[in-house]
């Protein structure tokens, strides 16, 4: 590995980029040696060969093989890996601990789509609060003007004055809280293991424990990532604690809630209705999707025309920042900066 002085004096870096990002790479990485790879065509041997001498690697989708200790050992010059998107649930193909142990920085696009996901959360909330809306739309598409309420779904209700509980107040949860305030809800309850003053103050959040939030809220919005700490967090016991007239929305990850228990509760009317953008297994054949009081979208909350370009740009900008010998933004494993194994030694913490 080159010494710190050699690294600082080096003009160009070799950067391995997913081929669909080549336009952004041409604009942002001029002067560097950019090598393209194809996620769905290049196998482990091909990408390992291309990664020889590469300083940074930008993924748009998980590779067909794991970025693990073996791969990192075979690419000894690789110092930084960036993954577009924000999910960290692909533990079988993105070994973040292996990156940290090998001294490789790992960054992603966490938080960039917070506004878009929050908008989708509001959409699902309103659908779940007014579950006969879809029935009326479908009747009109079939040529029938029929305002009669649907027989098998709860009657529509308003958000005004309701108690909203948000589980997970990171950037998405905070954006949801701000939008709920604008819709004149009564209270906003929040649960998060690490409580931040600015979230409580600016989003008008009252911190409570998880059971109290589930027992008290008229609307529950889950905004949790999937991790060992959050997997199965909303257990069968906690699903049973939710009020019978409550609405539950999930724009985080499906694995944070016991899906079988949720299905039974919604089917049996022990939860009024749900709006779900995520399920435990995706693609899914969950019976939840067939319930008339369940509104399910195929993990599209973060999708918008504008967001696609933002995500692409940010992915390549992370590599461009690294090429300038700066710490990449949205670093997932900042502890690597204090490691003696850090491959980009010039970025080590003081």
TrEMBL record:
GO MF assignments: glyoxylate reductase (NADPH) activity; hydroxypyruvate reductase [NAD(P)H] activity; NAD binding
Domain annotation D-isomer specific 2-hydroxyacid dehydrogenase NAD-binding: ranges: 130-301
Any GO CC annotation of this UniProt entry: cytosol
Residue ranges occupied by any D-isomer specific 2-hydroxyacid dehydrogenase catalytic domain in the UniProt entry: 16-333
Gene3D superfamilies, A to Z: NAD(P)-binding Rossmann-like Domain (3.40.50.720)
Recorded superkingdom: Bacteria
Signal peptide, first to last residue: none
InterPro entries: D-isomer_2-hydroxyacid_DH, D-isomer_2_OHA_DH_cat_dom, D-isomer_DH_NAD-bd, NAD(P)-bd_dom_sf
Keyword terms of this UniProt record: NAD, Oxidoreductase
UniProt keyword NAD, yes or no: yes
Protein family membership: Belongs to the D-isomer specific 2-hydroxyacid dehydrogenase family.
Protein name, entry field: Dehydrogenase
